[in-house]
């Protein structure tokens, strides 16, 4: 089960959905027909040790491995009921069965205890062994060595990764990878969200138990302190793991090349437009300065013309005054002679 790829898992879920639709179409009771609890039980599954309950896959034990975190409380309830009816020790009393039948029944009860409690279920979902295996099988840079511009391959490889990681988000809705034609704003919003991803994922489920039979408070305090330290370390590593995934996705995203080209063209267009406006403004300024110069020259010419006219008028007046003075002088000289 853990060797399934993202696509194979999605295919299995889709086939199960179609199977349920077909059954519901036959008029079966929907509550009894949730398609859960009927998965094949492997020999290894039936040999689980209830003392090692933290290592068991609770979804697989209840026959919910095709749904996992998507299983509803109703499906968990019905799956548990089916398993109890099949494996209850009282039902098998007097029948030939292996000595591990009672042990597997305890595994069923523990699986129900965990998945029927929202807090315990969330802790288990944080370290679900199925998805933990998939986290180690994500794309790498080497997978894109000869496919740098293959948009379909990029989306096919990375979209399921973000769909898987999205289940841990504190915020909803969670933006998915999208398509090649997504606008610049959408692509940037996607990376902004994932670079600031708020995860509710925790690692309490992996805490070590206090040594069995120990009543020492010192042992308890030491174990609690160590568990707290380990949880913090795993949280940091998980945050770094997701950050590395986003970094790698961004570095391989063929949309970024398209966006950079669009931004370059926009800058050039803006620069061209700005340059055109500057030339027009310079031309208008030169024409205005020319107009002002011509107006000033005209005003100066008119002022000089007026000044010349005034000077000519003053010169004529002076000449007339001198002429008049000479006439008066000759007249006076004539009177004295007589």
Cα separation of the termini: 157 Å
| Tally of individual domains | 4
Mean pLDDT: 86
Order of helices and strands: HHHHHHHHHHH
Query: Percent of residues in helical segments?
Result: 55-70%
Uncertain residue ranges: 25-31
What is the radius of gyration computed over CA atoms, rounded to a whole number of angstroms?
Answer: 46 Å
Q: Main β-sheet: number of strands, strand sense, barrel status?
A: none
Region (Disordered): 1-41, 212-238, 256-338
GO biological process, one term: regulation of translational fidelity
GO molecular function: Hsp70 protein binding; ribosome binding
GO cellular component, one term: cytosol
Task: Give a topology summary.
Elements: H1 6-25, H2 43-46, H3 58-61, H4 73-87, H5 101-115, H6 118-126, H7 129-135, H8 151-165, H9 184-195, H10 217-252, H11 254-337
3D structure, described in words:
- The protein has 338 residues and is mainly alpha-helical.
- It has four domains: 1-25; 31-116, DnaJ domain (Helix Hairpins, Orthogonal Bundle), CATH 1.10.287; 147-252, no CATH class; 278-337.
- It has eleven helices and no strands.
- The longest helix has 84 residues, at 254-337.
- The relative contact order is 0.06.
- Mean pLDDT is 86; it is low at 25-31.
């Amino acid at each position: 089960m853990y060797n399934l790829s993202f696509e194979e898992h999605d295919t299995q879920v889709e086939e199960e959905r179609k199977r349920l639709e077909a059954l519901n179409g036959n008029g079966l009771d929907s509550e009894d027909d949730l398609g859960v609890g009927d998965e094949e039980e492997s020999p290894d599954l039936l040999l689980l040790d209830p003392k090692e309950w933290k290592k068991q896959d609770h979804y697989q034990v209840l026959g919910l491995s095709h749904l996992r975190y998507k299983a509803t409380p109703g499906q968990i309830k019905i799956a548990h009921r089916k398993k109890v009816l099949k494996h209850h020790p009282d039902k098998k009393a007097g029948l030939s069965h292996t000595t591990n039948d009672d042990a597997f029944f305890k595994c069923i009860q523990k699986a129900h205890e965990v998945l029927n409690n929202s807090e315990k279920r969330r802790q288990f979902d944080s370290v679900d062994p199925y998805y933990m295996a998939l986290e180690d099988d994500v794309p790498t840079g080497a997978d894109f060595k000869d496919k740098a511009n293959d948009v379909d391959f990029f989306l096919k490889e990375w979209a399921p990764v973000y769909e898987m990681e999205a289940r841990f988000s504190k915020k909803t809705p969670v933006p998915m990878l999208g398509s090649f034609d997504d606008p610049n704003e959408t692509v940037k919003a996607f990376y902004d969200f994932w670079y600031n991803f708020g995860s509710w994922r925790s690692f309490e489920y992996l805490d070590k138990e206090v040594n069995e039979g120990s009543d020492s408070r010192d042992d308890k305090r030491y174990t609690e302190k160590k568990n707290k330290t380990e949880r913090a370390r795993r949280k940091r590593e998980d945050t770094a793991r997701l950050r590395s995934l986003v970094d790698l996705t961004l570095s391989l995203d063929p949309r970024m090349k398209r966006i950079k080209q669009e931004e370059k063209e926009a800058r050039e267009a803006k620069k061209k437009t700005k340059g055109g406006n500057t030339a027009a403004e310079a031309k208008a300024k030169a024409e205005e300065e020319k107009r002002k110069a011509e107006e000033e020259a005209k005003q100066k010419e008119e002022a000089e013309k007026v000044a010349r006219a005034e000077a000519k008028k003053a010169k004529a007046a002076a000449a007339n005054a001198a002429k008049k003075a000479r006439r008066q002088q000759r007249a006076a000289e004539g009177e004295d002679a007589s």
